[in-house]
Amino acid sequence: MHLFLLLVLLLVVVVVVGFALVAVSKPQKSPSRPLAESNSKLSPNSGLTKNQSLKQRQQKLYKENNSPKSRVASFFAQLEQRNYCIAVLRCHTEQVVCFAFHPKNRCLVSCSSDRSVRIWWDPVDRQAKFSSVNLFTLAASEDGVKFPDSAVACCWKKDGQSILFALNYTRAIRAYDISENQKVVAGSLDVISPQKNTVKDIDVDPLLRYFLTYDDSSTFVVWNMRGTILTSVDTHQVKINQVAISADGRFVASAGFIADVYIWEVLFQKDNGEFLGLNKVMDLKGHHAGVTGVAFSRDNKLATVCKDRTIRVWNIEVRYKLGEDAKLLFSLDPWDTQVDLLHVTFSPKGDLLAVAGNDSVAFYSLDTRQVVTVLRQCTGRTTVDIKKFGFSGDGTLLATLGQGQQWISLWNIPAMPSLSSVHP
Ligand SMILES: *[C@@H]1O[C@H](CO)[C@@H](O)[C@H](O)[C@H]1NC(C)=O
Ligand SMILES: *[C@@H]1O[C@H](CO)[C@@H](O)[C@H](O)[C@H]1NC(C)=O
Ligand SMILES: *[C@@H]1O[C@H](CO)[C@@H](O)[C@H](O)[C@H]1NC(C)=O
After folding, report:
1. Is pLDDT of 240 > 60?
2. Domains of the chain
3. Quick check: 49 pLDDT over 60?
4. 339 C-alpha vs ligand 3 centroid, how far in Å?
């Protein structure tokens, strides 16, 4: 028994000394070192191939960022993967649960289970750092006692003037308005959702006639902007993976556990705007497994990604009133035969389709239908699935969030359209 303890102690000492030696031989780079300086490390005479040095720098950055000391010091770390990853927003002390980009610019809101909400006015503005961020909490109250609740879902209204949040503990759905001087004030919407389960996502009609929420069940709920429930729709898809609203607010597409994707038309009375209901108008058949992601383009194409490892793009501008169904325009092969496809979105300009699978994001040109580039290891050192991703409103950035991670990575959008500019 004593011998065993002694052995363990010896082992610990050896490991500690080993680490100390490594630490001495490789002095830690200060996290606040300016980018220009760290770039000089990349010069060819450093003796490393570009790949190796990039990888090492990446690993080093992640190591630095993960130490408690640097978590305070390097609030804003920079990291590059072939110059695409331009910033890592590291500021929450627990996992980031949701984020959403402003519909027109780079402003981003992020929510964490540490109960903080941050609004990054310009998330890549390295100079501004803390001042570029507005931090607040979502207050809940019970029996007159106030405490902060955390958001589980958020989205911007199309005008960029306010943000909708779905709260976790109280099940409140609430809007906050952004005032002229970037102050955040309580908005006009504050209701309690009757849904028992945690809201998975919230999305708002660009024309501001309705918003919708859904959870892990097969049902989504449609609300008017004052917080009255207009209708609940049972999709019969066992479990909803995603519900998306088209750019004109006219269609809602839902994807779930089953292979069929459904599209509803949202009907309002022409003259007085009275809500008439949702009409199921299309049933997209062709996938062979659960559909994990669905997205509309601005010109009403629909993209779907599926567990069957196919990416499909559909034309929904059909005479559905005459019984016509959506037509498959083309399908795309994934960039890796073993990748699990998770999410899909069109770039705001409409020239790219971005697909997230495992910890990678691939960009497809909608012109050539070819992969433009693949961002691998988007979740850094730890390989986890991408939980959420999205383009900034101006189309210049892509943000990725890994499952359980406390940071959001921001990526420059690759230059289009020439393939050679990406892989020289
Ligand atoms: C360097 O990167 C290229 C393409 O990005 C890749 O094909 C190659 O295998 C990499 N080399 C090493 C040593 O990792
Ligand atoms: C929501 O709250 C429950 C406890 O009420 C907690 O276990 C869970 O982690 C929270 N979810 C998120 C996403 O914060
Ligand atoms: C993606 O993730 C799944 C399950 O987590 C795994 O089986 C698969 O090998 C991964 N694919 C790649 C390309 O890493």
Report:
1. yes
2. 95-208 (2.130.10.10)
3. no
4. 5
